[in-house]
Write a structure and sequence with these properties.
Strand order of the largest sheet of chain B: 2-1-5-3-4
Largest sheet of chain A: 4 strands, mixed
Oligomer: heterodimer
Helix content of chain B: 25-40%
Structural class of chain A: alpha+beta
Order of helices and strands of chain B: EHEHHEEE
Order of helices and strands of chain A: EHEEHEEEHEEH
Chain lengths: 147, 83
């Protein structure tokens, strides 16, 4: 299990290759989130986090995924600081014998990360700066894992 | 009791600081919010709509009516927007 909170960029190839180790791993699923330009006016995205709690929350979420699915590896990387349009914000990757578990666990990680990991995004445009509001749909997405 | 209080995102901006030591008699997080609100307008403004405020006690997300107990750190922040 690899959980990283950093202001630095990461290398997708290195991360995926690390999960591909082991003859028993049949599937690796990765998701990468990038900074999207809002209507062509985004200067940068400011990502704030809660040092200490962020690492704990991400580790808990990764452990829950590993408890629910037979995973041979889990990687969660989330950046903070000022990120320009097109920059990678975060990634999750899961490895398993079969693709079903790898896909499901990656979706679970993303759903929990959206509204249970202490990050806050602020969009800085030429018109000013605004905190990104949470979406009710993000909270609702958690309910599908509550069985 | 002395407790460290942290603020993040727009709560930090409205209150004008990221952390402070607070001497409190509050039994719960909600009571602590009431004490802070009574201090100054900037706190009252930050805590004007508690449906948009989340809290963590010693770095665990908790409900606002949670007892402070022996906690050392309380954090207030808007709903999280990771990913």
């Amino acid at each position: 299990m690899r959980v990283v909170v950093t202001d630095a960029d990461f290398d997708l190839k290195t991360e995926v290759e690390a999960l591909e180790e082991g003859a028993d791993t049949g599937a690796v699923v990765t998701f990468t989130g990038r900074v999207r330009d809002v209507a062509g006016g985004l200067r940068h995205m400011e990502i704030e986090h809660y040092p200490g709690m962020t690492e704990r929350a991400l580790t808990t979420i990764a452990e829950q995924a590993a408890d629910r699915w037979p995973l041979s590896g889990v990687t969660v990387i989330h950046r903070h600081g000022a990120l320009e349009p097109g920059a990678r914000i975060m990634m999750v990757a899961t490895a398993s014998r079969h693709r079903d578990a790898a896909f499901a666990a990656a979706e679970f990680l993303m759903d929990y990360l959206k509204s249970r990991a202490p990050f806050w995004k602020k969009e800085v445009t030429s018109d000013g700066a605004d905190w990104v509001a949470s979406k009710e749909s993000d909270e609702a997405a958690l309910s599908r894992w509550s069985d | 009791m002395k407790i460290q209080v942290l603020y993040f995102a727009w709560l930090r901006e409205r209150i004008g600081l990221g952390r402070e030591d607070v001497d409190t008699e509050a039994a719960t997080i909600a009571e602590l919010v009431e004490e802070l609100r009574a201090r100054e307008d900037r706190y009252a403004a930050a805590f004007s709509d508690m449906t948009t405020v989340r809290a963590a006690l010693d770095q665990e997300l908790v409900a606002l009516d949670t007892p402070l107990g022996q906690a050392r750190e309380v954090a207030f922040f808007p709903p999280m927007t990771g990913g």
